[in-house]
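Quick start: what a row looks like.
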Amino acid sequence: MSKIKLLKQETKELIDWTRKVKNETESEFEAAKKLATKLGAHYNNGKTQIGFWLPEILADDEVEDVYLEVLTPVEDLDFEAEEQQIKFEQDLISLEQEGEYLWGILSGMQAGTREQAGSFYWIKYQKADGEWGHVYDPVAYSVPFGVFAPAELYDMQQLQENRNDKSYFDKLADREEEIPKISDPTNLLQIHPGTASEEGSLRGLANIYQEIGKKIKNEEELTAAEENYIGYEGVQLMPIEPTIEYEVGPGFWQQEEDVEGEEVEIKLVKPDVINWGYDVVVSDSSAVNPSILGSGRPYELVDLISTLHNFPNGPIKVVIDVVFGHSDNQGLNVLNENFFSGPDMYGQGLDYQHPTVRAILLEMQRRKVNFGVDGVRVDGAQDFVYWDEEDQELYHDDQYLKNMSNVVQEVAGQKYYPWMIFEDGRPWPREDWELASTYRSVIEEQPDIFQWGPLTFAHNTPFLYTFWVSKWWRIQEIINFGDQWISGCSNHDTLRRGTQIAPDAKINEKLGSTLPEIIKNAYDNPAEKLLTYAMFPGLPMDFINASMRAPWSFIRNTDDQYAVKVFAEEKYFLDWQVTEEDYNEVDNFERLKNLGFSELDQLKSFVRKVDEAVQMTDHDLAEITKILNTLSDSDVEFEITSEKLKEISTAWMEDVFEYCNVSNHWHEQNSQQTEFNLKLRRFRLQRPWLMDNLDGNEYFDYQHPCQGTVLFYGLREAPDSDEQLLFIANMEGTPVTVVPNQLEIPGLKEDGWQVAITTPEVEAAAVDEEITLSNSQGIVFKRFNN
């Protein structure tokens, strides 16, 4: 006898409410927003409210039976087990239909907590031909076995009640605004959760910050690696929503459809998808990617947030990166067709003009941020577009971007608006985008938000000769109106693009003697850091892999159709990020070595040949294998087949993923460099006025003519004129000698200066003495007017 019951009267009251919303709300979109808050599964005091939007299923004459299938484990479920066979009690419940929706209030469902698994649920339907199908909850709070499995009912009320950072949110009540907006931090650290700790999880990242916090409280010395995690007022997590899964399986939830009975046995596999985060299916963006949850439980995100909010040096804000500008083609298998506007360069575009779709996307965002997040970074905002049939024109949906900024959050009883960042390079990908993009399109519509600036957007390679002088016009824009730009050259996009540059390009060899040295010194560059933190307005951001001088690449192990193409496109990664010594380390590239690639040069040669064959055949696997097998110097002793190429491609992604984990480079840190970077971050934190655009007596220029050196110099002055900063840096080129107080800066005072900070290996000098700065070296002086 089933324990789960549909509560008829309460369900009727819920449906009556939905009818009232539809009848009394002024627009279809506003009604859909209210209804969206009730969708999914909500547990409260022993009762569960369920709602599904099913326009296709409920309108399909071929569908005969539609049920809510509830699967409750009858034995202990270990979310950390790699594989397990678990028995579930199966219940099929008929929900009540109202238009395109199914609704229900149920008793008897088990809610998940930190300690126990909840009931799993999805819609199960049968067609006239006897075939069964499923509809997934797209706004679930917990998907321990991915988006292609039933969601878990989770007790979100208990999760919020037990969080350890309530006092952080209580302080928002002291603000004068009715609904306060989270203020922007002074700087950011960008982190990919899968590679930022040895465990590769949110739990692993929280453990790092907890250990650092203990050391700070006990006044213990931090390691050089630990210094790279602190000195920030904000942490930006790369996307933590569920990503695409293995194209050809196996699935993480393996349930036979033809099994009848009250109990079913299901094989469960712990999700282990590798992804850089941006290959999403959009569905369940309200939940956390189970592949980055060590425990498999959503409380990990709250634990990390609470750890950062309670950090002993002061609260660290948490920003999440959301991806609603596109969906991978896998999204077609988990969302109904109303969500999609048609194919685009990433897979599928989303239909933001559909009122219910628009509302559900915003609801996904609201639920994710309600985990306790302070800010939202919107990926690829230039991709939020719609086609106007009347005008026959493609428009940017700026109103939707405003809707995103106006979502009201509520955590620990406190309502607030999150701080917003938009990445928007429109008219990208138009051919002239590098010239035409203003990086201010969203700022012009929403004056209180931030955007990624021109040196932060993807295609920046500061290791090429003349980079700094060729970007001068953009640098002037940063100086003059970059106060709402995220600045800095190191992030997941720029570092990845760097590894795609051909080794025979015009590379600044003064940055190092090898390509791996050059790329490390380019993206963790003392002069660039000094420029960003001591001169530029706006908000500096660093990438943990760059700060750790750890490798980074495009990582994704789910492909079947395009696995070989994706592998081939990373052909220069080995040149830029792997030395002979690195490759010969026993624990590095084990899978590829087991496949026969015992030497680094052998693998380099092979991947280049694969890339050439991919381009020659337009990625025809059959033709690619023919070409590779006919080469006399094929680099391998086995026959190359399509399946073998896919195996090699997957091994590459999984080996590179492990190689990019910063824990592998924990003990390789140069304390002089990490101390300088931390000192510089603290320097910025002490001077929040540096976020403002240059004005009045402030000045910035470069030495004309260059004569082989790009020497930047400038003057910053506090708003109260109490402090001045004199900045000088050799951004690239031959050593240059200057007398700091003789630089051609209008109104520059000749005395009263003292050294504030120097890049490593630069000896402090008096402001009226000659100082010689080599490539990537710089100095900042300070002067007080009181």
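That is the whole record. The mean pLDDT is 96. Residues 168 and 309 are 7 Å apart (CA to CA).
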